[in-house]
Design brief:
- This protein is an alpha+beta fold.
- The protein has one domain.
- It contains 3 helices and 2 strands, in the order αβαβα.
- Strands 1-2 form a two-stranded parallel ribbon.
């Protein structure tokens, strides 16, 4: 499990590697506890709500690149459903990842 809490949480997470992915806003320390990663996006600050902006997604792509090599499996889950934001942001995230040289799989090319 990855989190942004006290050192005891980090020790527990490292002993029991269930998830390996960032939690918390950019700037929160990453605790890589597994060889794979999981990101869960709930709501961005871009317009229209609850979209994520390009800069925010690019920042997350960079953080993934710092924490995991390209050959590691890193899963991104978008839970910001209102207005169809989740699939649109998933495609935008995949494009940002590809632009950064990351391997991307199972993402629609175009939703509009």
């Amino acid at each position: 499990m990855v989190g942004a809490g006290d050192p005891g949480s980090a020790r527990t997470a490292r002993r029991r590697p269930l998830l390996g992915g960032p939690a918390g806003p950019p700037g929160t320390p990453l605790w890589r506890t597994a060889g794979w990663g999981y990101l869960r996006f709930h709501a961005g600050l871009a317009q229209p709500p609850p979209r994520y902006g390009r800069q925010s997604l690019a920042t997350w792509v960079a953080r993934v690149g710092e924490a995991w090599p390209d050959e590691a499996d890193v899963y991104a889950y978008f839970n910001n459903d209102p207005g169809g934001a989740a699939p649109l942001d998933a495609v935008a995230f995949a494009r940002a990842a590809a632009k950064a040289g990351r391997t991307v799989s199972r993402t629609p090319q175009n939703l509009r």
